[in-house]
C-alpha cells in the first residue's frame, strides 16, 4: 500500500473548515506516513480493494474497456471511505490479535492449570 503525502496539499486547497486530523497528518514526516501505510496486512488490503471495487463497479477488464470518470468531491468521498475502512479494519485486526493473546493466557494447560 502506497501513501502519497502530496494529497494533503490538494485537500487543503478545497478545505473550508479547519480539520485537526488533516493538520496533524500534514506535520508528520513522509517516512512515518509511508511506514504506517505499509503496515496494512494483506487481508486489510484485500478488503479495501473489494470495497473500492464495489463503489466503482467491477467488470472484467479482458471483456470490457472500462473508463470511470468522476468529479473531485465524489473522488474525495471514495478516498475518505477507503481510508476510514482501513483505519477501522486495522483497529479490529489489532483487537483480534489482542483477544487471541488474552485467550492463550487464560486457557488452561493440559494438566488443568492456568498459564502465567
* Mean of pLDDT: 75
Percentage of β-strand residues: under 5%
CA radius of gyration is: 20 Å
Number of helices: 5
Tell me the major beta sheet: none
Structural class: mainly alpha
As residue ranges, the low-confidence spans are none
Distance between the terminal alpha carbons, to the nearest Å? 38 Å
Strand tally is 0
Instruction: Sum up the overall morphology in one term.
Output: flat
* Proportion in helices: 55-70%
One letter per element, helices H and strands E, the order comes to: HHHHH
Task: Describe the protein.
The protein is mainly α and 116 residues long. The protein is built from five helices and no strands. The chain has helices at residues 7-14, 20-26, 30-38, 42-56, 72-106. α4 runs antiparallel to α5. The longest helix has 35 residues, at 72-106. The two termini are 38 Å apart. The mean pLDDT is 75.
How is this structure best summarized?
The chain has 116 residues and is mostly helical.
Lay out the secondary structure.
Layout lengths: L6 H8 L5 H7 L3 H9 L3 H15 L15 H35 L10
Helix pairs in contact: 4-5
Can you give keywords for this protein?
5 helices, mainly alpha, flat, 116 residues
Amino acid at each position: 500500500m502506497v501513501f502519497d503525502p502530496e494529497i494533503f496539499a490538494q485537500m487543503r486547497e478545497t478545505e473550508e473548515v479547519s480539520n485537526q486530523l488533516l493538520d496533524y497528518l500534514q506535520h508528520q514526516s513522509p517516512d512515518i506516513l509511508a511506514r504506517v501505510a505499509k503496515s496494512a496486512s494483506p487481508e486489510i488490503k484485500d478488503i479495501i480493494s473489494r470495497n473500492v471495487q464495489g463503489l466503482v463497479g467491477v467488470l472484467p477488464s479482458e471483456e470490457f474497456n472500462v473508463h470511470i470518470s468522476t468529479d473531485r468531491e465524489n473522488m474525495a468521498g471514495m478516498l475518505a471511505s477507503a481510508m476510514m475502512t482501513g483505519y477501522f479494519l486495522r483497529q479490529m485486526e489489532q483487537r483480534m490479535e489482542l483477544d487471541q493473546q488474552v485467550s492463550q493466557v487464560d486457557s488452561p494447560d493440559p494438566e488443568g492449570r492456568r498459564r502465567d
